Amino acid sequence: MIRARRLAFACCFAGSAATAQACPQDRVLVKGSFGEAQFVIELADEPAERGRGLMNRVSMARSAGMLFVFEQPQAVAFWMKNTLIPLDMVFTDRSGRIVHIHENAIPLDETPIPGGEGVYAVLEINGGMSSMFGIKAGDALQHPAFSGGPAVFPCKD
Fold first, then answer.
1. What's the farthest any 2 CA atoms get from each other in the chain?
2. pTM across the whole model
3. What span, in angstroms and rounded, lies between the C-alpha atoms of 42 and 121?
4. For 137, left (φ over 0), alpha (ψ -120 to 50), or beta?
């Protein structure tokens, strides 16, 4: 597992081969003017999983993250209660387009972090990673969660 995560991080700037294959459930590809970055993710698409999130973890691999997927687009706000590591929160619409990024959320802070209206998914990655890669609003995520709707760049069959 650790080797796979290291490999995923080493391949963060993926070429066209990464988008030519089917999308695995445990990976998110972020694509923008900076290029492409891939993260090995845990999927939180049930209410209990979304409620637990990344709480009580003392570390997370640099290439890892968690993708929170909601049943429908909505206004969402996250907080850092019981979350011990700083996180970047990447909020997307139904198509996978990034609509807002909150960088370096403060561990244990209970202040709500709003993502805006019409949020369908949130990718949480280690704090500072979005800035390090140059990920910004307008970039897009590729994952099977977005392929059922108007995905910006859908998974290949």
1. 41
2. 0.86
3. 13
4. beta
Cα separation, 86 vs 142, in Å, equals: 24
CB 14 within 8 A of CB 38: yes
CB neighbours of 124 closer than 8 A, spacing ≥ 6?
Answer: 53, 54, 65, 66, 67, 68, 78, 87, 88, 89, 90
- Distance of alpha carbon 20 from alpha carbon 137, whole angstroms: 24
Is residue 8 within 8 Å of residue 18, measured between CB atoms?
Answer: no
- Helix and strand counts by DSSP (H, E) for the chain: 5, 7
CA dihedral sign, ordered 45, 49, 50, 53: negative
Judge whether 28 and 123 are in contact, CB under 8 Å: yes
Q: pLDDT digit string (tens) for 35-88?
A: 999 999 999 999 999 999 999 999 999 999 999 999 999 999 999 999 999 999
Tokens 């990655």 -> residue: 125
Quick check: 8 pLDDT over 70? Answer: no
* DSSP H or E run through 8: helix 2-10
